[in-house]
Design a protein that fits this description.
binds magnesium ion; alpha/beta; 5 helices; globular; 32% helix
Length: 178
């Protein structure tokens, strides 16, 4: 089986509104254009996964059963929009924990690659923080930074290959670069 290119997506601030320690499945709110964006990437031959830091778990703000339910619902919603998200990877560690799974470390991307046979060199990491960008680079992939919450300036990490205002624009730029 040839290795597949993937787009690995951050969750909060990328696919859904970042409510900070979202713990209630009923409060999931999708960002504009995300379904169309993922359909474009699917049609361009990318498989799709999600990688999310969840420090809310060790903080006691997020219950792992709710986290599982939130991911089940997001996956079902995208499926109803014709988009198959292969897997959700989460890193339930504190912000000061340098665990391999916690972005900016690449563990979740490496896990996705192992599970699905991904070609990380031809893959992209997309997120709204420079830690997402760095996780992509540490995995050997290219990276997209979304929006203006975070800036490549004053960051200790290398800048993203693409800086886009939103996921739909990012998808079109990824496809243009291949
Ligand atoms: Mg985010």
């Amino acid at each position: 089986m040839p290795l597949k290119p993937a787009v690995i997506l951050d969750r909060d601030g990328t696919l859904i509104v970042d409510l900070v320690y979202l713990n209630e499945p009923d409060r999931i709110e999708y960002l504009p254009g995300v379904f169309q964006a993922l359909r474009l990437l699917r049609d361009a031959g990318y498989v799709l996964c999600v990688a999310t830091n969840q420090s809310g778990v060790p903080r006691g703000r997020v219950d792992v059963r709710n986290l599982d339910e939130i991911h089940r619902r997001i996956q079902a919603k995208f499926a109803s929009e014709g988009v198959d998200i292969l897997s959700f990877h989460s890193a339930p560690y504190m912000t000061d924990n340098d665990h391999i799974l916690r972005k900016p470390n690449p563990g979740m991307l490496l896990e996705a690659a192992r599970w699905h046979g991904l070609d990380l060199k031809r893959s992209w990491m997309v997120g709204d923080r420079m830690t997402d960008v760095e996780a992509g680079h540490r995995a050997g992939s290219r990276s997209v930074l979304l929006g203006t919450w975070d800036s490549p300036k004053n960051s200790p990490f290398d800048p993203p290959e693409i800086h886009a205002p939103n996921l739909l624009t990012a998808a079109m730029e990824i496809i243009a670069r291949g």
